[in-house]
Every structure is written in structure tokens, then in C-alpha cells.
## 1
Amino acid sequence: MSMGIPEITLNDGLTIPVIGLGTYKLKGNKGVNSILSAIDIGYRLIDSAYNYENEGTVGEAVRRSSIRREELKITSKLPGRYQNYDNAVTTIQESLYRANLDYYDVYLIHWPNPKQDTYVEAWQALIDAKKWGLIRSIGVCNFLPEHIERLEKETGVKPSMNQIELHPYFNQESQRRWHEKHQIITESWSPLARANEVLENDILKQIAEQHNKSISQVILRWHFQLGAISIPKSASFERQLENISIFDFSLNETEMSLISGLTRPDGRINNQDPATYEEF
Ligand SMILES: NC(=O)c1ccc[n+]([C@@H]2O[C@H](COP(=O)([O-])OP(=O)(O)OC[C@H]3O[C@@H](n4cnc5c(N)ncnc54)[C@H](OP(=O)(O)O)[C@@H]3O)[C@@H](O)[C@H]2O)c1
């Protein structure tokens, strides 16, 4: 436990908190201050990516923070354009230089980009970087079961986690069950659906009122009870605190299914289906 945030252990033995801070768009001095406020109130897991161009911001917050490096879990991600083996190795090194860190706790392949067909060599680079001590735990984002099966078949190593789009409008039920069966932790990106109209939903409003909590807190509690790590992004101290204050109530089975029932086939925020969507 760190300041009341429970932790879970990944299939490779690394233990990480069940809620982390998303950092998309947190950059520069304002970004450093937002990350520092999150660390102050108890966040220990920080998500970033090479493509967010904020690994430097995250590294600066780590250095300015009074919390020891070993107590923080820092994540970054390999972009699609650098998936071939040699590029992947130098990109991991570049990610570390940018953050001025000796190692990342978690490093993920950002998108499978299946048409490009280089995610297996990218995976081999992550496996090697872990052996060299540059990364403690390796995983993927946005991988479908067929992509993960290929990784395992061709390298013998399976990811510790898969970070996927997951929120009440897109509950990822079958993908989550598949992860559970294969001891892979699900991590939810855009866990609040980017605070879109979901935060006005009547069903969520009623559940929130019942528990005297906010809709965001109900959604984040739902992620926790699903067994998924969530990484809500907030620049504000008040909302950061709100987002981790979810361990003093619980949703019953009916409430859990009402929330899961909000899902819809076209519920993705930007229609990014990993089977076809590519990001570089
Ligand atoms: N692997 C991938 O492909 C991928 C894709 C997308 C995102 N991600 C990661 O996932 C993280 C989270 O996703 P996200 O940033 O897209 O969306 P999100 O966390 O669902 O939502 C962030 C938005 O919600 C607002 N917000 C946060 N807490 C709130 C609260 N309690 N009440 C009302 N509004 C609140 C934030 O505004 P304020 O900042 O003003 O509070 C921000 O506008 C990202 O930051 C990134 O690290 C990964």
C-alpha cells in the first residue's frame, strides 16, 4: 500500500499500484508541478510515452520529488515508427536519456500496428532491454489476443500487462477475460472516457448519489473492482485527490452490471480499433 492505494503484482513479480497518473498533455513546468502534486498526495505510478514528448517532464518531477526513485513506478512506451529491432533498442535508450533515468519500471509497445508487422522484433528489443537492466517489466498496449499469442509463440515471453481503452462505454469484457486466463494485467487508458458526456450519465449519477461520491469516483471504483489498473489524467490537485479517494466504498453486483451495461459496440472514443488503426 502507498498512502491507501492498493497494489497488485504482475506476472513477472513487479508490484504496482492499482491507480496511476495519466500524463498525456502534461508538459513543461506546469506539467512538472501537476505530477509533483500527484506524487505528494500518494500517486506512485506515472504513465508517459515517447510520443507524448513529456518523458523529460516526468523525469524532472521524479528528481524534484522528495519520494525515493525506488518507490516510484515510471512507465513509458515505444512508438510505432521505431519498432524494428535496432530502432527499438536506441529508442529505449533515448527514452531513458530524455527522462534522465537509469531504468523504467514498465515499458510498453504503444500500438501493434499489425500491417507494419514489426511488433515481434520490437518485443525482442524489450526482452533484451529488460535483461540489460533498462526496464523492470515489459508489456504492450492495444494488443488483441492474436497479437499477444504471436509474441508468446515466437519469443516465449508474454507481456505483464496490456494497456487498452476501457471505460463504461467500452467495457472490453472479452479482452479482459482473455487477459485473466493468461495472467496478464489489464490497464485502462482513458478510464474516464476523457471526461466526456459519460460524466452526465443518469445511471452513473444515481449510483454516485447513493454513495455520496462523484461520477468519476464511481467509474474509477468500477475499474478497480473489475481488476483493472486505471491511469486517470488530471492536471488539478483537487481532481487528482478525488480520483484516488475510492477505497472507502464499494459497488454491489447490480451497480457493477449497470455500469458495464453502458457499453456499446461503437463506444470507443475515437474509433481506434487496434486491428486496423495504426499510430506511429
Ligand atoms: N496507450 C494508449 O494508446 C493510450 C491512449 C490514450 C491515453 N493513454 C494514457 O491514459 C491516460 C488517461 O487517459 P486520457 O488522458 O486520455 O483520459 P482520462 O484520464 O479518461 O480523462 C482525462 C480528462 O478528464 C479530466 N478529469 C480527470 N479527473 C476528473 C474528475 N475527477 N472530474 C472531472 N474531470 C476529470 C481531465 O481534466 P483535468 O486535467 O483538467 O482534470 C482530462 O480532461 C493518458 O493521460 C495517457 O497517459 C494511453
Note: The pocket of NAP is lined by residues 22-24, 47, 110, 141-142, 163, 189-195, 216, 231-236, 239, 242-243 (CB under 6 Å).
## 2
Amino acid sequence: MIAAAPLPPLVCLDPGHGTPPAVGRQLEPIGPGSRTLKIKDGGGAAGEAAVALAIARRARRLLLGRGYRVAMTRAGPTIHLGDGDGNIARARFCNRRHAALMVRIHADGSTVRSLHGVSTLVPVWHRGWTDDIYARSLRAGRALQKAVVRSTGALDRGIVRRADLTGFNWANVPVVLLETGFMTNPTESRHLRSGAYQQRLARGILRGIAGFAPRGAMARR
Ligand SMILES: [Zn+2]
């Protein structure tokens, strides 16, 4: 008898935004059972949705080339997940696929135009919401942040723990959110819109994921 080969890890890529405004302004609970409601999608920084998608597509190509399985919450300009098309839907989409890691891809915005650099957001520990994914998400976040800073040479803004992200609190799989740079910084915005820089970001994402979820290893449950 020959044992079935284990499936390679599945990476769930979640390019931020791309929500129709009428859906984006709807409210959803920030965590299971929570009475705190938050809008689904404020739209992000100007140009962010397209940049996030371009980086995700490049990361997908690199991951597939290394033998990973990849799912994307959106592969075009607009999200079509059903299930409310909010951050709950994005998390559930990745949960259903038992992703080894959910990587949310965003770019920052600020009224302070000099701000620049890369940060990685991870969930805080919250009993019943993130207790099962907290440690692995933090480990993945550190691997991703380090690899992306190395591949881009961008300023390292570090790891940021967030309690208020719906897409974290509904996730049952390890989850991180990469802020790839500031759309509001003139220099970084130019980089973020260039194919060459997007490719460097994608390579960093691949290396970070490879450090957290080696291709040869089963996803840890
Ligand atoms: Zn965003």
C-alpha cells in the first residue's frame, strides 16, 4: 500500500480593499459574538487596492512556482466572495481552505507624508477569538517582516499587534497583515506602483512564508 502524499501547504492571499462602496460601508461584528461593529472596508489609501492586488498576483506566481497551493480572496479589482463580502467573509474563505497562513496585503496611508516603511500587523491574544492562532501568527509575522525588509531595503517599522481587525478576529488559521509601504509618501508610492519593486515585495513574501511554512512540511494544525 502506498500512503497518499501530504498536500503542500495552502497560502491564502488577501489583497486589501476592492469592495464596492455600498458594501464597504456596511457594518459587521469585529469578532464572533461581539457587539462592537466596524465597517467592512473604508476603501484604503488612494491607489492601494490596485497595488495590493498586483503584489498578491506576483506572490501567487512565485508561491505556485515553489509548489505551494494558493487561494486568493480576490483575483480582480472587485471582491466576489459572497457571505457578505466583508472581512468576515475574507477570513472564512481562508478558514474553509484550512490555510497554513492567511496573508493580507495592504499599503499604508498617513497625513504625514514623510512616513514610510514596512510593518506587519498580527492579532493580539483574545480568548475564544485568536488564542488558537496567536503564537503561530506572531511567528509568521516576524518571518514575513524580516524577509520583506530584507528584500526591499525598506525601513523596518516592526510588528504591530491589533485587537480591532475583523479579518484577524474571525480567522481560525494563522493570519498576518503586511503593510507594504506608504501610498502617501511620494518616493515609496512610486516604488509601490513599479513592477520591479512589487516583485521584490513578492519575493520577500515568498521567503517569509517559506520560513514559516516550509513547502515540504505539513501545515501544523
Ligand atoms: Zn488597506
Note: The beta strands are 10-15, 27-29, 37-39, 69-72, 101-108, 118-123, 156-162, 175-182.
## 3
Amino acid sequence: MRVHLVNPSHLAFGVAVITPRWLYVLASATPASYGDPVITDETLEPLDINSIAAGDVVGIGIHSGNALRGYEIGRLVKARGAHVVFGGIHATLFPEESHELGAATTVVKGDGDLVWGRVIDACAHGTPERIYEGGRVDGERLTKARWDLLPQDRYMWASVQTVRGCPKHCSFCSVWRTDGQKPRVRATDAIVEEIVELRRKGFRFIALADDNFYPVALNDLKMADRRTDKSGYDRLKAIRDERFELMSRMEKLPRDMVFFTQITMEAAEDPEFLDAMRRANIKGALVGIESVTPEGLKDVYKDFNLHGDELAERLKVFRRHGVHVLGSFIFGLPSDTPSTFDATAALAEKADITFAQFVMLTPFPGTVDFERWEREMATDETRIQGIPLTRHWLIPQAVRPKVYSPHPLMAANEIRDRTQGVWDEFYSLPKIWQRSKCVKSLKSRLAFVLVSKLYRQMYANTGIATDSARVSRAEKWARMLAAPTRRLFSAPPMPELQVPS
Ligand code: SF4
């Protein structure tokens, strides 16, 4: 009996940007008595179905974007006599769907770190339960990944998690409801040991795959300090102190390392934190800007963000402290107008952000937006290949709509075309070349251009375009660019590297 772990994807590029960490965490959680699991990441290449034998255990992790492919794999491997185990955010939210459509033997809800070994044992003994509750595992008990199983030369960035959960409550995001609002911080030693292991193997680019690397804002501390009961303040202060402790350990890692993370814009009010990030070589961060208008921010419950000129100034603070911003914007909010697209493109330029992504509002399961939308759609009779829009993840990719909520001012096609237009403008060659001044040598500037173009082909064209010729062209381009781009990210291994004290 073998254990397989599969990350489903309907697109494969041969090379991927970031390692899907969960595969290597569950590999680590697999009891040694079952041998090393066979890992398949379909963003690299499709699963070889012939590698699955009767009695094997196949773990499939799904989010709403890849659930349909996950269910297809589930049915195929079940037909070969394997035990099918679904996990991940989507399976947590819709466990019965995995049974109905994915031929699940069992479903794990929540974190798999601690329960996974028990699930395999039960499958091996023919006694699996229908559903397992993995719960929310404490930061101290989150499992480290098995990086020794990572294939050579396939990923640009490794991924290490330092904290899980986010105290905010954005309406389009499910993280705070699935991972919880209480930050679960991993032990500094465990994090640094994993980073060192990766650098020994030749990874110098590491994504800190956190929900929010800045889980305690200065304002949260101030508010907690005003209360008579100081226990809340003490808890938040301890989390903040641990962040600084981690960053001070990271300072002692090789200086060629580059880290990237995800933080809220409030971090710009905290120069001490930004300086610690710079010293720790955290050189970039995805910042959820979402909207450039106050109405848009209100739409997504993110009024702690700024807008207008203040927003541009706030974003520039990151750059001044040596942290490059990948700005994330959402289009199709109820308050958006045709002018919002131009205003966003202008802001992205003015605010000196290094990379940007422009996504279209999608009601993802587990979010406040989804619940509201599902209620509003109760009487909608639209079906695509027999599937209601409120189950959009079950609609085949080729015919899946890109815009879901009727907009008060713009048709779906207009939102899609304008979104594509902003991507085109931001990633036009002259604009990329202009932005590439943020690195010094000609070689680095060329690398910057290559990475920007790859980013755009992988995410903009394949994600937004409804024209299948454009999607397949983008996929081909992404495949061509991916291999040479990956080489830019590799570094000589450092097998002797020690864990800094
Ligand atoms: S979008 Fe970011 S800040 Fe908002 S809840 Fe999700 S993780 Fe937190």
C-alpha cells in the first residue's frame, strides 16, 4: 500500500512559481511505516493514473479553483480501487460534495497536520470514518515540511509558514473564517531550521506563506492597552515580540536570501517593523489594496486601508524602507465605475509599486460575499451545462464565467475587458522597463522583465481571458518563459550552512 498526495490543476507549466507547501507538510505527517509518499503537483505535470494501485491511499487537497479537477482525479483513482481522501479549504466547507462528486472514502476538515496519520491507518485497516475533524492546530504543533522529497529544479520559490490566521474580516476572503482570527504563530526555531534546510538545497528565494505576516497592528496594541484587563494586550505584545525575534534570527541567514510575504497596509505605519523586515531580507510583500476609492473599501469591509493621494503616499513608505510591494486590486465591486480602472492604473504607477495583480470580484465559498450572493441568487435560474452559478467551481473551466454578480453600471464583458486592459497597461514593455530601475545591473533588469512577463502570462491571460485561443497562447508562453526564469532563482547549494543561534 502506498500513500499518494496530489495537488490538482487543469493547467501544467512544467515549472511552478511556489511550492505547494501542504504536499510536503502532509508528507512529513505520513507515518514512516508507510514509506515516503508519492507526490504529484499537477501544476508541473498531470498525475500518472497508472501509478495508483488498489488499496493505495490518495490524498487530494482542493480549494474552489481546482475542486473540479480534484473530483475527476478522485473518481479515477477510486475506480482503480484506491482510498480517496479529500482535504483543503473547499473540502472543509463542502465535505458532502467530495463524497458525491469526488468518490471520497473520507474527508478531512480543517488542518491535516495531526489527523493525517490516523486517517491513513484507518484506511489501511478498512475502517475509515466518513469525515475527520482536523481542527485548528496550535502554532507550536504545526508540522514542518519534508523538503528532502522536493524534486530538483522545478520551483522558483520554496514556501515556509510562520503564522496562520488573520484578525481582519475582509468580505471577499475566507481565511479569517477557516484559519481563524486568532494568529497561530509557529515557533521561531522550527521556522529558521526549515529555512536553513532550504538554503542548503540551493533555495535562496522563500515565500513566507502566511495569511498575514503582520497580525498585530500598532493600533490593535493601543486599543488593547486602553482596557483595564491587560490580558489581551499581553497576548498581542507577545505575538509582536515573537515576530521581531523571528526577524532578528533571519538577519543572521546568508545575505543572498530573499523573502516575500503578505501583509496589511497598516504595516506602513510601523517603521520599526518595516526596518526589521528589511534587515531580515524580507524584500517584498503582497499588500491587499483592493480598491482606490473609499466606497470600494467599504464594499469589502476594508476601511482600515487608505485611498486617493494618502494611499499612494502610504504605499511609497514600504519602498522607502526597502520592501517592494505586489499590490493586489479587485475590480467589479458594486461601487466601481468605468473611471475606477483608469484611476487604479494611475495609482499603481504613482505609488511606485513593483508588481501588481488585478483580480475580478469572485464570490468564493466561505466568504461573507458568497453567503450574501448565494441568498440573492436563490431564485436565479441560470444554468451552465446544468450547473447553477452559485456552484461556479463545478462549471468546466472552458465555459466558467469570469464575472458573477450583475453590476449596477457595467456589463460582465466590460468589466473583463477593462480588467484585461489594466493588466496590459501595467505590464507593457516600456512600463516594465521603467520599473526595472529598482534593480541595478543590466542582467538584473532583464531578469525583472522576464519575471514580469511570466507573471502576466501565468495569471492575467490564463485567468481572465474567455477566448480559448488566448488562454492556450498564454499557457504556451508561460511554459516557454518558466524554465529560463526558474534558473534565475536558483543558487549554489550551501550544504554546510548552520542554523543561526
Ligand atoms: S484579505 Fe488579507 S487582511 Fe483580509 S482577512 Fe484575508 S488575509 Fe486577512
Note: The radius of gyration is 22 Å.
## 4
Amino acid sequence: MNATANPLLQPWATPYALPPFSALRPEHFAPALREAMQQHRVELDTIAAQAEAPGFENTVARFDASGRLLARLEGVFHNLCASETSPELQQVQREMAEPMAAHSSAVYMHAGLFARIDALHRQRAGLGLTPEQLRLLEQVHRDFVRAGARLVPAAQQRYAALMERLATLTTQFGQNVLADESAYRLALEGEADLAGLPEFVRAAAHQAAIERGLDGHVITLSRSQLVPFLTFSERRDLREQAWRAWTSRGEHAGASDNRAIVREILQLRAEQAAAHGNASFADYALDNSMAREQGAVQRLLDNVWQRALPALERERGQLLALMHEAGVTHDIEPWDWRFWAEKVRQRTYALDDAEIKPYFPLDRMVAAAFDCAERLFGVRFSERADLPVYHADVKAYEMRDRDGNVAGIFLHDNYARPSKRSGAWMSSFRLQTRNGGDVIPIIVNNNNFAKGAPGEPTLLSFDDVRTLFHEFGHGLHGLLSNVGYERLSGTNVLRDFVELPSQLFEHWTTEPAVLRRHARHVRTGEPIPDALVERLAAARRFGQGFETVRYTASALTDMAVHALPQGQVPDDVVAFEAQVLRERGLPPGVGLNHRFTNFQHLFAGSGYAAGYYVYLWAEVLDADAFDAFVEAGDPFDAAVATRLKQHIYAAGDSVEPGATYAAFRGRTARLEPMLKKRGLLEPA
Ligand SMILES: [Zn+2]
């Protein structure tokens, strides 16, 4: 294809230089990405070939500003692959995984470029750099070393081949999970199959049927459909079917089987770690984290695991008592837990989702998230219906700062659809930077909420509300970024720090002042009654044993499998997973958040491999951080919010995370607020 005919390679004459979505076709991506990689290589060769001695500006700052075209194209490409994919786009994804990984290796193994960066790194103390410049130099240098810049040429060649193969495998892994999700539907025939389902679950199941060109009701593997089904369906046989389909994604013989893929990924990662002199991939991954080493992670996980098991058994006792009363004698299986827990919740707290959801219409909750951001950080969001978006369901907003200047663009993509992967996530089309001119960020949040029927509002569960705020917290981390360099921008922080801004933002969903203002009944407009808010808070603590055990079990399997040295990856990863859980004593009837064959955090990319623990690590920080507002006596205390914005939401990776946290809090984080929040401090 001729470059002039490719809209990706022409200047984007759109507002805020948003991608020209409506002009883009799958066949535009491969040639544009190849052209952008070529341009990036020329930029790097030019930096390396300078006659002038290496300096911060001519080498480190220029490196940070290089590859902008590629970064923008990758932004569009990865976001569309995740949120609005198609067989054609998936084909491009498979085709480009290796060349893009090869390009990344070529960048970080560029000998001439690394020689300059390495020379500067050795002299860094005497260069007269600002603290942020010094941080940039150190992080860029670390990126090069961790990507193999110091390996001898033959080892570099093997390393690059490893990375290319890993890119292919992780791409295939994610596509296989999506294939199993899209292929599955549980058709509910007649009233008998719908037994126990409240109106909102029926409406979502009907809507899902319509979207698939069917009549009646279907349950898909979208989490916002599946979890309510497991919670409410009186049909134990159907719950079991749905649960088995959900947990066996990626574990069926055939084209979408992830078992051999997981094994090969683990083998390659062990080899990758060995190339750096690390005993295991966990060691390699943790070397670039706040935790620093496996022992620190294990101590946290062990501590929480030991406290969560008795909490879970207390909850089990309540479930069994109610089952006994109802004359039910079977054991609790994983597809039963939520169902009976919901019955206990309704009985003990007189609470059910059908009563709660009318107070949480999606539109009002989005407004609530914006309002909290305004009260804390002084930014205002306003919709711009005319901005280009990639799907009719996506809403675009301008974010203005206190002076009224547009400081960021926010895209909100809230609904589940077959072309979108499951889960919820934040991503970017463009990062904030001042290097090479002021650039404002373009940030996107994806959720997978079940859409209300046509003409009906979309109602959220309280968990959905937390997810909405969680992702918006990540969004603010990208949008409020105020740093000099792209490498240090927004969520480009150490991965056990990255969940702090998101999980912290969840705290405002339980603030009575926020709920009274925004959680209003969808029909009457009445604010949610205080008594219901209190019951909601009490009921949330009730489920913490179940949630904490399942989460921690997944974090333990992740650490165990990534702690295996080279040559010790088992042939049967599913059996290994079961063995770890047996040794750890996962109680029966609970199940996991994620099985290896569909654990996208670990295997659809490498960002969270040996890193599922980061949510808990960051929770220590977020619970301790929110206590600063509690101590000030106001969830919007202006002084605390100002420090929070400066040191956490705006700082990116411009300051070492431990130091920036201490600057916000005046001390290091304490463990107790997290344990207290999860109800794990109470005596058995
Ligand atoms: Zn998150």
C-alpha cells in the first residue's frame, strides 16, 4: 500500500489529533507499523551516530522523544485489538507480534545507543541533572539492561528470538480465551431455566440474546452476566454448567487450547531470567519492583492467607447453617458459594442486589466519579459528542484544569460486547509529556457492564461501581500526569505501585457524602437511605473471606509457577496448579479467580507475570493513604488532596515510589489499615 493512501501515516487532522477512527481499516495497520518502526530505527541511528559527545539532551532526552509515530500507532492498534477486534484485526495482531517484539529488542540492543547511555549512566552523579532527569537516565538505563543490552551478541540473538516467540504465544493465549468466551452461550429456555433470576439479570440475558440475533435469554461468559447468574440462579445444574464453562476457558483440546502455550511461555521466561543471571522469572520480575525480592511478597501473601482462611470458614459456617435450615444436604461446591452467600447476605443484612442496583444507574455513577475528581483535584469533565470514537458506545470527554485549559481527553467505553475482551482496564492513546513540545494525554477506560435493554438505564451492582471508580483512578493517573518525560509519564510506574491510584479511588464509592449526593433511585430520584448504605458496608465485610482467599490463592499459584528455575517447568501445568493449591490448603468449594489456562494477567502479556500480588501490595498503600483523609476528618480535605495530586496522581515515575509515597504521607505505609479494611484483624 502506498503511504499517502494510508490514513495512519498522514497527519491526523482531527480535534486533539485523535486517531481518525472512521477511516481506519485492518489492512492499514501492518504497513503503517512497519513504516513507523523503520522511522524509529532511523531516529535511533541518528542519535547514536552524533559526533558530539554524549550528553543528557542529545542522548537521553532525544531517546525519550523518539518513536512517537510508532507509539501512537501502537496505541490505536492495541486499543482496537482489545476493545473492538475482528478476525481481520486478530490476523494482523498475530502477523505483527514477532516483528514488533523484534523491533523492541533492536531498540534496546542498539549497541551504539546503549554505549552513549551507559557512559552517561556511569557519570550520572557529575552531570548536574535535575532529580527528574537523573531518574529518567536511571530508568532508561535499567530498561536497556533488563532488555538484554549487556548480553554478548550471540546471547542477544537468542534473547531477541525468545522475546519474539513470547510475543506470539501471549497474543495467541489472549485470542484463545476470547474465542472460548465468544463461543459459549447458555440458552435459558422458559421460566424453569430463569428460576431465581431478578429482573436485571433477565433483562441483561435478554439483551445478550438480541445482540446475538437470538430470542429469549442467554448467559455469556461476560463477568457482569456470569457472576449475577451464579449468585441468583436457583438451578444448581445450570450454575454448574456456567461455572465449568467459565473456569475451563483455554483448557479444551482443539484450536483454543492454552495448556501447551502456558508451558512454553513458562519455559521461555525461565530461560529469559537465566540470561540475566536470575534463578527464576519471579526474581527477574521482582528486581524492578517496590517489593524487590520474593521473600517480601511471600511474607505479605502468607500473612494475609493465614488470616483469610479462618474468615472464610466463619463465612462457610453461616452458609451451612442456612442450607441446613433449608433442608439442603449437599456439600458446597464452587458454583454454590455465591448463591448461598447471597441468601445469607439477604437474611443477615436484608440486602439484595435487586434492591441496590436501582440506586446505581451508570450515568449517575460516571457523574459521581467526575464529581469526586473535581472536588479532589479541581478538574472538570465535559462530554464532546463530536469527537471521533471507535464505537458508538464510546463517550469522549474533555478534562479541563482549574484555569479552564483542556488538560486531557478521556474516552469511556463501558459496555460488554463480543468484540471486546473480558475484564476492565485503563489504557492510553497518547501519554502526557513536555519533551518535544507539550502533549496532553488521551486516556481510555474499558468496562464490561451488561447494557440495559433499549430505552432502559444500565444499572450497576455495587461491585460494578467499584470497578468503574477503580479504572477511573487509573484514568486520573494518566490524565493528571505532570512530568517532563514520556518514559516517566502517568501509569509508567513500577507495577506494584500502579494499582495505588486506582484502588485508592475506590474508597470514595463508600463515602456517605458521595452516596447521598449521587446514588439516587433511577425512578424516584430519592437518595439512597442511610440505613441501606450501612447495611451495604456491613454486607461487604461479610464476603471478604471468600474474596481474599480466592485472590490470594491466585497470587500464590502465580508466584509458585514463576519461581520455577529453568528446566523445572512441569509438563502438566494444570496438575502443577492443583498441586500448589493442595499444598497451600485451598479450602473446598471456593474455586479460583483465575486458572492458568485463562489467567490473562500472567499469560496474555508479561506485565503482571509474577505480579498478580501487586493488587494486595498496593492495597497496603491505598488503605494507609485513605487514612490520611480519615485523620483529617474530611474525604475531600483540601490539603491532603493537594499532596495526593502532587505526589501520587501527577508524579508518574519521576520520583522513586517509596519516596513519593513518603512525601505524600509523611511516613512509610503501615500494614494494619489494609487488614482492617478486609476485616482480617478481628479475632476468630
Ligand atoms: Zn487496576
Note: The mean pLDDT is 95.
